Amino acid sequence: MYSAPSIQKLLDELERLPGIGPKSAQRMAYWILNADRATAMRLSEAIAEVKDTVHFCSRCFNYAEDDLCEICASSKRDASILCVVSEPRDIPPIERTAVFSGVYHVLGGALSPMEGIGPDDLHIADLMKRLAAEPIEEVVLATNPNVEGETTAAYLARLIKPLGIKVTRLASGLPVGGDLEFADEVTLGRSLENRQVL
Amino acid sequence: MYSAPSIQKLLDELERLPGIGPKSAQRMAYWILNADRATAMRLSEAIAEVKDTVHFCSRCFNYAEDDLCEICASSKRDASILCVVSEPRDIPPIERTAVFSGVYHVLGGALSPMEGIGPDDLHIADLMKRLAAEPIEEVVLATNPNVEGETTAAYLARLIKPLGIKVTRLASGLPVGGDLEFADEVTLGRSLENRQVL
């Protein structure tokens, strides 16, 4: 169909990307074809570079370029409070809030009997080792507010509470700036149960 | 924000792509981070490869890997009918119809006084040279059915007709499978003007 096999190859590779169908892949391919060489090569090299330099932090399993990620390596973080998340991608949104200054632990997923993901498939043993070795006073369970995330949080709470460490969970409730009228009933119910004294 | 500068760099490069905002770039970046190395490198290399191997066909200005594009190099194409398009990207949709077996000429744009694009900015002189040198009996003007495309087609028709070469234009009308009810009035008007005897 395309008069250059290398264009077809590029289209095939672009279509593998999440959320990219044939039309978007075509738009991206023509953009790359029309871009000046330096711009296109920066994209090509940025892809190669993350595969060469990014691995998992040896302590918290966040993405890292060195042995420790930038958060674990920082002296400015409060090592007494640890936030547990499912994936490295959950860390940037929490950092953007500027409300949390502790450290993280990435589980690498969430418990899911449906998908056959059990405790041994997650970095839970590593978490327990950290709780024994580090001066952690509070664990914030920041797994997603869905079935797998809640299951994982409940499982971890049962494991950690007996160690005498404070265990907390992200609050559920109405999104700030949201409309009561359009809130789903589960969220609205949760925000009633968790109502705050003013 | 990201614990690895190379991830931020990848995000910046992905966001340059057309139709890709911060959220899509993030999804793509995490996909690349989670992909196995070989898959990610195929994408990286496919981008580099098109920049290294693809240039313009010396005859028709389509994308090509050799001196001539695959269509110009093919002995199976009818050299007596030439289809004029604005961009290389207009050729694959025409090829997919399997209705046209002639050759192409890519203008590299369309006339646009608004954007300061005149005849000298397009491959029009090259087209006239081809019409003088090649055994072309019909020119199909397949520029887009918008203001710039129509202007370009009218301009070329005035240039080519005096050479005694048949000049045709893509038909405008209702899309096949479309609804009369939802057709815009310009398209419906055009399909009435161009009505066919059955």
Outline of the structure:
By secondary structure, the first copy, chain A, is α/β, with parallel strands linked by helices.
Observed structural traits:
homodimer, 198 residues, alpha/beta, four-stranded parallel sheet, two-stranded antiparallel ribbon, 8 helices
What does this structure look like?
The structure is a homodimer of 198-residue chains. With 198 residues, chain A is an alpha/beta fold. Chain A has helices spanning 5-15, 22-34, 37-53, 70-73, 91-97, 124-133, 147-160, 185-193; strands spanning 55-56, 63-64, 78-85, 102-106, 138-141, 166-169. In chain A, the strands form 2 sheets. A 4-stranded parallel beta sheet of chain A has the order 4-3-5-6, with helices on one face. Chain A has a two-stranded antiparallel sheet with strand order 1-2. In chain A, helix 1 (5-15) crosses helix 2. The longest helix of chain A is centred in the first third of the chain and has 17 residues, at 37-53. The first copy, chain A, is globular. The N and C termini of chain A lie far apart (67 Å). At the A-B interface, helix 1, helix 2, helix 3, strand 2 and helix 5 of A face helix 1, helix 2, helix 3, strand 2 and helix 5 of B.
